[in-house]
């Protein structure tokens, strides 16, 4: 007669314990692998975000009129260059209403401002209108191929106080700013445009409170303060802009710091 054979209770308990150990190790391994993949994805996303923000700021600042770039505690402001050419003659009396130029090679929109030189002038003169001065009142649109510029609006005349050694004249547009949000919005980075002209640089809170401005979000996960430094241009070197910011991870305490130096190569 054959004896029936099977597992003893002790053997079953040992198998169950071993399976539990294997399952625990497998679960931890999968958990650590998933956590590592998430952390790696967060780092790559922050790195890419930092590159995109830095590249956007760099491209815009490099298109700025170099003497116009300025910074306060949380904002960087500049006047963008719309076009540049050489002038044949600047306005002369008695009307001072027309500049003779070589063609810009592109259309310049109505409302643009014209700047000649500007070294030796206070920066506030580039953000405010004085006659004579380095910056003109708004001009009529200048078509591609046009050889003259005419001023528009109530002030249809202007005398440029200085002359450019290379007879350069620049067309610039309205003001732009990049600012860190204030108060509860301190983790946000904004880009402002289409706000009113003036001599004083507005603060982040003033721009946030303006009704007549366009605001675009560049980032929503800043940590600490946006650090901005502007080295003004001189007759021997171009302007340099340094900016530094830190981005926070959404799922951990990790941060990514970005530091960039931008040389503005345009020289009046």
Overview of the structural elements:
It is a single chain. This protein has 268 residues and is of the alpha+beta class. It folds into two domains: 41-78 and 175-264, no CATH class; 86-173, no CATH class. The protein is 22% helix and 28% strand. It is built from two helices and 13 strands, in the order H-E-E-E-E-E-E-E-E-E-H-E-E-E-E. The chain has helices at residues 9-62, 204-209; strands at residues 70-71, 75-78, 81-89, 98-101, 113-115, 148-150, 168-172, 176-180, 189-193, 214-219, 222-231, 239-248, 255-264. The longest helix has 54 residues, at 9-62. The mean pLDDT is 84.
Please summarize what this structure is.
With 268 residues, this protein is α+β, with helices and mostly antiparallel strands. It has helices at residues 9-62, 204-209; strands at 70-71, 75-78, 81-89, 98-101, 113-115, 148-150, 168-172, 176-180, 189-193, 214-219, 222-231, 239-248, 255-264. The mean pLDDT is 84.
Topology:
Layout (H helix, E strand, L loop, with lengths): L8 H54 L7 E2 L3 E4 L2 E9 L8 E4 L11 E3 L32 E3 L17 E5 L3 E5 L8 E5 L10 H6 L4 E6 L2 E10 L7 E10 L6 E10 L4
Antiparallel strand pairs: 1-2, 2-8, 3-4, 3-7, 4-6, 5-7, 8-9, 9-10, 11-12, 12-13
Overall structural domain count: 2
Write down the overall mean pLDDT: 84
Helix fraction by DSSP (H/I, runs of at least 4): 10-25%
Pick out the low-confidence regions.
Answer: none
Given the helix and strand composition, which structural class is it?
alpha+beta
How would you describe the shape? Answer: elongated
Distance between the termini: 110 Å
The largest sheet, given as strand count, sense and whether it forms a barrel, is: 5 strands, antiparallel
Count of helical regions: 2
List the helices and strands in order: HEEEEEEEEEHEEEE
| Count of β-strands | 13
Using only C-alpha atoms, the radius of gyration works out to 30 Å
Strand order of the largest sheet: 1-2-8-9-10
- Proportion of residues in β-strands: 25-35%
């Amino acid at each position: 007669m054959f004896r029936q054979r099977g597992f003893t209770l002790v053997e079953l308990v040992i198998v169950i314990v071993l399976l539990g150990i294997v399952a625990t190790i497998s679960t931890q391994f999968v958990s650590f692998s998933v956590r590592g993949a998430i952390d790696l994805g967060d780092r790559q996303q922050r790195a890419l975000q930092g590159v995109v923000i830095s590249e956007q700021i760099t491209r815009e600042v490099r298109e700025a009129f170099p003497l116009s770039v300025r910074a306060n505690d949380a904002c960087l402001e500049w006047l963008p260059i719309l076009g540049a050419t050489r002038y044949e003659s600047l306005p002369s009396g008695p009307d001072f209403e027309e500049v003779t130029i070589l063609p810009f090679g592109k259309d310049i929109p109505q409302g643009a401002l014209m700047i000649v030189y500007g070294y030796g002038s206070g920066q506030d003169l580039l953000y405010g209108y004085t006659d004579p001065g380095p910056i003109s009142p708004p001009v009529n649109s200048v078509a591609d191929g046009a050889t003259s510029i005419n001023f528009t609006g109530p002030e249809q005349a202007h005398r440029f106080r200085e002359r450019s050694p290379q007879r350069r004249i620049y067309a610039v547009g309205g003001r732009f700013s990049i600012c860190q949000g204030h108060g509860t919005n301190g983790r946000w980075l904004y880009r402002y445009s289409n706000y009113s002209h003036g001599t004083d640089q507005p603060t982040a809170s003033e721009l946030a409170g303006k009704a007549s401005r366009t605001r675009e979000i560049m980032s929503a996960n800043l940590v600490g303060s946006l650090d901005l430094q502007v080295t003004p241009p001189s007759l021997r070197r171009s302007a340099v802009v340094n900016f530094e910011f830190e981005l926070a991870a959404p799922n951990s305490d990790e941060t990514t710091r970005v530091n960039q130096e931008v040389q503005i190569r345009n020289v009046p």
